[in-house]
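Example (one chain per record):
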Amino acid sequence: MQRAIIIDDERLARNELKKLLQDFPEIEVIDEAANASEGIDKIESLSPDIIFLDIQMPGKTGFDMLQELDRAPHVIFTTAYDEYALKAFEVNALDYLLKPVEPKRLADAIQKVQQAEEKEIASHQQYSNRSLLSENDQVFVKDGERCWFVKLSEVRLFESVGNYAKVFFGTNKPLILKSLNALEERLDEKTFFRANRKHIVNLRMIEKIEPYFNGGLLLELQGGEKVEVSRRQAVKFKEMMSL
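Predicted structure:
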């Protein structure tokens, strides 16, 4: 059973979707929200498996809302704007539905939900400690007009830039409005290591380790970035890696 929240500023659209979803017993609509702020509160308090999300809403858009979430659930966009269809795929949403929603397209989208869920179970991605972000959690990153859902396992490096953090994955390096200290509190230290004041590295993305000045270490990551491990952190790093 997938627990869902519908987020749309139009009450009629929410009611119509709820009515259509009655034909899908595997989806339980646990709540609804009329705007992004309400949506964030409900997602954070209820932790749904999936959200049906309108893009154009007064105030914040659906994309803006996703950017403020620590962890992104599965997302199916519902929109009257065809021009956003491409963008929705760019951010790797499960699907997008054009309004008025057709039952056949909804059935296709629900099937994608089931497939995503089966993949997660197969990959043991059901973590009991939900306060920590696991490497299999996905986060939403928006940089200008570009948007991504990124699995944390694909992020090799976080770099501090004032109150922002630069996120390195693939060939991308967008900024997110989160400090490195805030990120460190949420990331699993078995995977993500605070190398120094400015960098958190993904331990699984390290290609090479070399001794460095004053008892420190120099790490080379899969993307070619070189990150210094401070002397104090090098002691901890060696213990963790049993060097």
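Caption: Residues 124-129 have pLDDT under 50 and may be disordered.
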